Amino acid sequence: MIDRRLIQNFDWLLLLLTCAIMTVGLATLYSALFSGGEVHSAVLKRQLYWLGTGLLVMILIFSIDYQWFERFAYPAYVVGILLLVAVLIFGKTVSGSKRWIDLGLVVAQPSELMKPLLVIALARFFARQEKRGGYRIRELWLPALMILLPVALVVMEPDLGTAALLLAIAVSVILFVGVKPSSLMLLGGFALGCLPLLWFLMKGYQRQRILTLLDPGRDPLGAGYHIIQSKIAVGSGKFWGKGFLQGTQGQLRFIPEHHTDFIFTVLAEEWGFVGSMLLLALFLCFLLRCLNVARRSRDQFGTLLAFGTTAIVFWHVVVNVAMVLGMLPVVGIPLPLVSYGGSSAVATLTCVGVLLNVSMRKFVFQK
């Protein structure tokens, strides 16, 4: 028999915000795929399929008590690592990177799956190793290993953007649980000291992206083309935008990947500053609601789980929008529930399922 309190504590507002963002995403994707009076319906149908699959996964996730996630956190983490290793061996190469693996029925991107799995593993560790006053460096060696292993595997694909995102999500969780000030300063100094080494370890095209960020005009028809065209599209929308299906930069295909990583430019051109701010306001309300779920959780694992999944969505939105506006280098980071992409859609809705799960069970006191 279903506990009535589960239904009473269901977060309908969070679900409504999720559906609102998905609706905006589908409308924007429709426009991005519209050209010459026709729509690339096959791509749109695939996105609807992935969103439907993601919703089913979301329902499955919030139907299982999240305490089961704590029990199987480490085995699930190991499965994620094995999938990342499998990508390097058997992965499908696209544009010089091995990021996808054929699992028979679907072609998946394990690095997307690794984000929630890493959060669950870190939540289990810190929930059972709680330290008042913060952690010292020597007490963080195990979570550091848990973080650096998937980051290193993703860098080897190579996918520097996703690796940086994994690192940002994990660091957010660590800062949330608390680090002693002296240890935090040492870690910060170490990170800054590694920057020159990171520069030399980067591949040529990755260095080019950073140099292009500083001066897009140095190679306007090559590395700087994305950023220049993206800024033109966003700026041409002005305050009110050109109107639905009336964008020129997107319709005429001046912007590469305008239906995936650069889909925000389509929305900004057609709906202008007002439309862009409305979408960002939806994301802000969504993130604040997610943080409210973390705040109201009755146990440490649930709080860390909710905060970590919130960090996943937060960093995706920040990095994608900053990239489109020319504030960060061009990396393959999609805009959650807006950009076309199966792995991203399913992973984001998995995060929503986790948050709904924690919210539904906030009345349960754990030991």
> How far from one another are the termini?
24 Å
In one word, what is the shape?
Answer: globular
Strand order of the largest sheet: 3-4-5
Mean pLDDT: 85
Q: Provide the structure class.
A: mainly alpha
Rg computed from alpha carbons, rounded to a whole number of angstroms: 21 Å
Count of extended strands: 5
Low-confidence stretches: none
Overall number of structural domains: 1
- Percentage of residues in strands: under 5%
Tell me roughly what share of residues is in helical segments: 55-70%
Described by strand count, sense and barrel closure, the largest sheet is: 3 strands, antiparallel
How many separate helices? 14
SSE pattern, N- to C-terminal: HHEEHHHEEEHHHHHHHHH
Commentary on this structure:
This protein has 367 residues and is mainly α. It is built from 14 helices and 5 strands. The strands form 2 sheets. It has a 3-stranded antiparallel sheet with strand order 3-4-5, covered by helices on one side. A two-stranded antiparallel sheet has the order 1-2. The mean pLDDT is 85.
